[in-house]
Design a protein that fits this description.
This protein is of the alpha/beta class. About 45% of the residues lie in helices and about 15% in strands. It folds into 3 domains: about 100 residues, NadA-like (Rossmann fold); about 100 residues, NadA-like (Rossmann fold, 3-Layer(aba) Sandwich), CATH 3.40.50.10800; about 80 residues, Rossmann fold. Helix 6 links the parallel strand 5 and strand 6. It is globular, with a radius of gyration of 19 Å. Bound molecules: iron/sulfur cluster.
């Protein structure tokens, strides 16, 4: 079946099952094209909670679909390819977090949303890459155990007086960017502005002109007067950036910025998910309630 037939079938199935398709900004172009909404992980989960649709096809990786379930447990959440996971989220287990909490009994646990439902459930409060600094600075505790992304933890540490204890995890994709990549791009495009994600190494974020979450990068690209941007986040973001700013020039800071997990969903898997209402993502009730409490506490700090 060719891609336009598939798109038509997906569109019919969506209507038949009262479903919507949400696609993360890192998904392949074809998936972003047919999505009802594209965005970052937490923005999409909030959208999932506010829609009237009964079925959410979440095209991202597992922790994102779990967040959608946590925020809207009454809905059916499908992930077209269940193999799509996240090495960052997998870098911490609930058992390891429990052990670390014992090592730092005074510390408050701040958990980046790029983590499993189990880890969120053991945390005091969640944060996104956009609000991490604000969340940490809102807390009464002096000591913060920040999980699981060490690079985001370093970024927060540079913007707070609190003691940050970073978990030793990282996004294997953003961590690949090194300062030499920035120097090379500056040489190639001396008039370009470098924008990077805070999941990048601290020496990389220190050199960039702008540091922000994917959503913030998309907003910045729209608002900046500069017509040439060097992008330090996952390649899929270029789809949205180019669509939003057809007259601007975008260059990826490194060709390594491709997340293989994010490329697993495709049109035929979306069609199959809608046909079979499978694979579904579920979160046990107790975990869901505890993880929800950590997310809700974040929302009280920042009306995301
Ligand atoms: Fe995980 Fe990084 Fe891939 Fe996002 S880009 S899913 S944080 S490995």
């Amino acid at each position: 079946m060719n891609s336009s037939d598939l798109k038509e079938e997906i569109s019919d199935l969506k209507v038949k099952h009262n479903a919507i398709i949400l696609a993360h900004n890192y998904q392949i172009d074809e998936v972003q094209e047919i999505a009802d909404y594209t965005g970052d992980s937490f923005g999409l989960s909030k959208l999932a909670a506010s829609t009237d649709a009964e079925i959410i096809v979440f095209c991202g990786v597992l922790f994102m679909a779990e967040s959608a379930v946590i925020l809207s447990p009454e809905k059916t959440v499908l992930q077209p390819d269940l193999q799509a996971g996240c090495p960052l989220a997998d870098s911490i287990t609930p058992e390891a977090l429990q052990a670390k909490k014992k090592e730092y009994p005074e510390a408050v646990v701040v958990c980046y949303v790029n983590s499993s439902a189990d880890v969120k459930a053991l945390s005091d409060i969640c944060c996104t890459s956009a609000n991490a600094v604000k969340v940490v600075n809102s807390l009464a505790e002096r000591q913060v155990l920040f999980v699981p992304d060490k690079n985001l933890a370093f970024y927060v540490a540079a913007h707070t007086k609190k003691e940050i204890i970073p978990w030793d995890g990282c996004c294997s994709i953003h961590h690949k960017v090194v300062v030499d990549d920035l120097y090379k791009q500056r040489k190639l495009h001396p008039d370009g502005i470098i924008v990077v994600h805070p999941e990048c190494r601290p020496e990389v974020t220190a050199l960039a002109d702008f540091v922000g979450s994917t959503a913030e990068i998309i907003r910045f690209a729209r608002e900046t007067a500069s017509n040439k941007l060097i992008i330090g986040t996952e390649i899929g973001t270029l789809y949205r950036l180019k669509n939003d700013n057809p007259h601007k020039e975008f260059h990826l800071v490194s060709e390594e910025l491709i997340c293989p997990d994010m490329k697993l969903n495709n049109l035929s898997k979306i069609r199959d998910a809608l046909l079979n209402k499978q694979p579904q993502v579920n979160v046990p009730v107790q975990t869901r309630k505890e993880a929800f409490a950590a997310l809700e506490r974040m929302l009280q700090v920042n009306d995301y």
